[in-house]
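Reply to thread "Modeling small-molecule complexes from scratch"

Following up on the discussion above, here's a worked example others can learn from. I took a protein sequence and the SMILES for S-adenosylmethionine and predicted the complex. Inputs first:
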Amino acid sequence: MKLPDPYLHNPDEQRIDAPLGRWNLYIGGARRHVPGYVNLDILATPGVDVLADAHELPFPDDVFQRVECDAVLEHVYMPQRVMREIERVLAPGGFAHVVTPFCHPFHEYPKDYRRFTPDGLASMAGGLKVVKTGWRTGPAATWILFTMEFAKMLLPWRWWRILAHGVLGLLLWPLRYLDPWLMNSPHAARLGNHCYVWLQKPKTGR
Ligand SMILES: C[S@@+](CC[C@H](N)C(=O)[O-])C[C@H]1O[C@@H](n2cnc3c(N)ncnc32)[C@H](O)[C@@H]1O
């Protein structure tokens, strides 16, 4: 059974008017197919179009109307450098949507270096205009993920951990529907799960 997930990623909160263009870039989409985007990753898997490191994007300046960078910056050694690369390849007037974890278990793809806040993301805007910042997933997502990791930590065998992940995930994940309501609290950000920033490159160029 799959319940509808329109609320899980806080879509209304995150929405802005940022249409796709002819060329759009998705950074870090291994094992995914992302229609409408050039999918770039350091891992060669089905769905990846360009095998490259986000620290050195193999594209000319001012090409992409949209850049998506979702849950990648925590895995790169120099996030500021990746942000400057995103700024460089964005077309004038183009938008970047950058999502990162704040309260989230350690996870290596292939490394896990850090966490971010909305202000932290905005501080890396460089020459890009900060259009909007906020939370994509909130305290319920945080609570569920940490509860699952805590339970798995106590189990000695891999297959038990896989089973616990499946069973607890199934039992707990409907609680994520509490997030749109919990995020009305002014204190929700203290336990936010993933935050985002929307950035726009000035139309006049850099
Ligand atoms: C947590 S996954 C994000 C997956 C996807 N964006 C999503 O939300 O489902 C992080 C991805 O970033 C990729 N990655 C890590 N370091 C990278 C780098 N330096 N350049 C490009 N991709 C990188 C990893 O291979 C992995 O596919």
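What I'd highlight from this example: Residues 140 and 176 are 5 Å apart (CA to CA). Residues 139-153 form the longest helix (15 residues). Questions welcome below.
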